[in-house]
Amino acid sequence: MLVNAIEAKGLVKNYVTWDRRGFFKRKKRIVKALKGVSFNVIRGEVFGLLGPNGAGKTTTVKIITTLLLPDEGKATVMGYDVVSEAEKVREVIGVTLSVEKGFFWKLTGRENLKYFGMLRGLKGRELDRRVEEVLELVGLKELGASDKLYEEYSLGMKARLALARALLHDPPILILDEPTIGLDPMSARTIRELLVKLAREEDKTVLITTHNMFEAELICDHVAIINDGRIVAYGTIGELKRRAADRLAVEMIIAAPHTILGDLEARISKLIGIRELGLEPLEEGRARLRIVVKPGEEEVIIAKSIEAFYSNGIKVYQVRVHEPTLEDVFILLTKGSK
Amino acid sequence: MPSTSIDIIRASVFSTYAWLKNNKWLFFSMLIWPYLMTFLILALGMVYGSLETYRERLGISNPVLYILASSGIVMSSLMIVDVVATSALYHRWLGTLPYLLLTPTKTYKVLILEPVPSAILSSTMSMLAILPGAVFFEGLLGAGKLFLILLVVYLGMLPLIGLSVIIASLTLVLREETNIASFLTPLILLLSGVFYPIQVLPTILQGMSRIFPTLYVVQAAKLTATYTIPEIKALLGLISALIILTLIYNGTASLALGTSERMVKKSGVI
Amino acid sequence: MMRNDIRIRAIIWLHFLRLWRYKFSFLNNILTTILWLTIFVLGALMFIPSSKWGEMAPIALWGIIMWQFLSSSVWYIGGWTWFFISQGLVEEHLLTNTSPVPVLVGRAITGLSVTLAASLLVALVFTGLAGASVLIVYNPLIVLVGLVLLATMTISYALLLSAASFRIGIPGTILDIANFISFVLGGLAVPIANLPEQIRPIALAIPYAHPAEIVRYGVRGLEPYLGLANELIISTIFALALALSARIVFKRTMKYIRKHGVKAVGRM
Ligand SMILES: Nc1ncnc2c1ncn2[C@@H]1O[C@H](COP(=O)(O)OP(=O)(O)O)[C@@H](O)[C@H]1O
Ligand SMILES: [Mg+2]
Predict the structure, then answer these.
(1) Pocket of ligand 1 (CB under 6 A)
(2) Which run of H or of E encompasses A4?
(3) Whose CA is closest to A61, among A196, A262, A224?
(4) Average pLDDT value for chain C
(5) What CATH architecture does domain A244-334 belong to?
(6) What are the boundaries of each domain within chain C?
(7) With contact defined as beta carbons under 8 Å apart, do A279 and A256 qualify?
């Protein structure tokens, strides 16, 4: 009996792209998307692959789901090699690559599922039964959306339909690339609860990617943090939090017009001379700033920051110091390395 | 601050350039198309019939140049209608339609102005493409004639843009995947008698053709291909017809777009 | 094997369903096709004395029908590839162990439906112009054989173009230029025997010329340029060769995709 449902060892992937400049000129550029990614997913667990945008999550997912060949390294799913036994791998995985596309616009949700079910060899009563089951399971029935055209679906419905398709052939493994991105809290919660239920009650193995720490904290048994094509941390949520146990998190609510947020992060980082910070836009032109510091440093940093903000005309509304959350660990591990 | 017409045009010049840059093949194919059409018609016609028969039927002095110019007109009308009518669709497809509607000015203005640079570009290109042909047959005079035709084509563009906006409004409301009114371009061209005298069409169709701008553009091309020096008076008649059509079509278009914008916003098919 | 049956059923069902849901586009496409054809035919007719129209009409009509085979395959299969790629449908099919090829080929259902409807309507126009029914054919079976061979070639060709658009964005107009050229040079519109002597070798090298000769034989009993038996053999060889190269190229394209990822093409 296999212990690991998914094993990845030393995955390397370089993309070749062309920068277009001028009418005829093109310049070749290599994007190093993965620089040696290894991790294992234990059977029956919910595993989270965490990382900021562009970290290499989708690339990893595509390799594991057989859609992309690694340049180096090896990956297996249920013991099948993703390169040489791709067809077998595809039979045991259910995948969602995107919550907003991958279906035919002018077919209803039910028709789309029926079509993809047929491609998987389901037919007749069995097909109808499975389609109804998964529609029910993801809550599309309850929303009365089964017979609506896909183009009329809300994002939440589209995400549910994508999950339904992944479950159609009752695979032991689910691989989901940002399954809740952009969804309203209710839809996101439905999907999360369903994933946990599938793992606990039906012994399915679930791999999700996300950049939402809150989500990872809620449902993942193990997480791996990926940044800039490398796994920078692996463990249970508790273990990861302990990594930052010798640190403190400083949280400030400051004024920040949304229009300049991207620039603001760099500016603040320069102002206070700290790179490991996270900036998250809030409502009403405010933003939450997180800084991870060593105990004892917090007072100096706070004083320095407030002074810097004050002299630059940035209002500070609130300052708080607390134990690090997973999000602070994430900031510590992903911001510092660049 | 509301966007001025200049802002819209500038943005559109840029996106047209960027688009051409990434689709160079399209750029070159625009140059070849008129010749291909001419080749097709000449080849088909001459295998079974003769150029003499064609010359007599149409009563023109230089059939090859005429067919070439007509092909140019066909191409530019096609592109104008296509660019305008499809641009709204493209925007919806790419998800940029809401932003287009959010541009701080009248949507009508955006839809009309946005395609102007690529429309001017494509008609100029079509005419430039046939310049070597014209010079080959008639030397500098041929080039001069072509320039005259180009001016009429520009003028003909104005009502055509209005017409295209009407089509675009329709497509938006009917929410199809492609431009479901693409039959209008060949219909208009068919009625305008591009490669044949419109007298071969049934009388009802001949009457209908009067409401389409391309008829006058084609006639102007015919005039210039018929005489060494086209009759100014006849040309002026055509030009005034085009001006009247411009007013009518663009007026209707602004109404149609207002209605469709309301309907689109109501049904939420953005 | 069983599973492939279900797959094919699924794909056929998909395309008929989409055809129905996009009925406005469908009607528009038929109309557009007819109008363009009429423009060019009217233009070409101006070269011909009216007395010869009756004799010309059937050949012109069938030339046009064959051309429609070609251009509809290219547009419906090659053109749709863009949508297919940009909507992430390539990956979704691969995940079910289904190659995109049969799904793309299935688009021929839509293309052929448009062709069929447009051809019938144009035939009516021609019947009016020529004063005699132009759809009565000399040997229907031979016509059918010729059309099947032609369809095999055009679908394979469309797949080759579609494979190309997985790598680079090929704009539709380019696709159509090739169509235009094969219309005249490829002997679709004109029997090879009627082409000028110097052009005939070019026509003979273009695959479509051969099924076209077969179809014309079936329609009017015109002796094929190289004889019926020879044309049948040559057409079959060309059709198989094209189908085979489409297969090979697509296999390689799929490999390329797995190596480099699917990229969105076209105006994006
Ligand atoms: N097909 C591609 N061609 C070139 N570069 C790519 C391609 N796909 C992704 N990349 C690049 O590879 C890096 C990793 O991307 P991705 O795996 O999509 O990240 P994530 O899913 O974590 O946001 C990014 O820098 C991205 O721009
Ligand atoms: Mg991603």
Answers:
(1) A 15, 17, 31, 33, 51, 53-59; C 261, 263
(2) strand A4-20
(3) A224
(4) 84
(5) 2-Layer Sandwich (3.30)
(6) 2-260
(7) yes
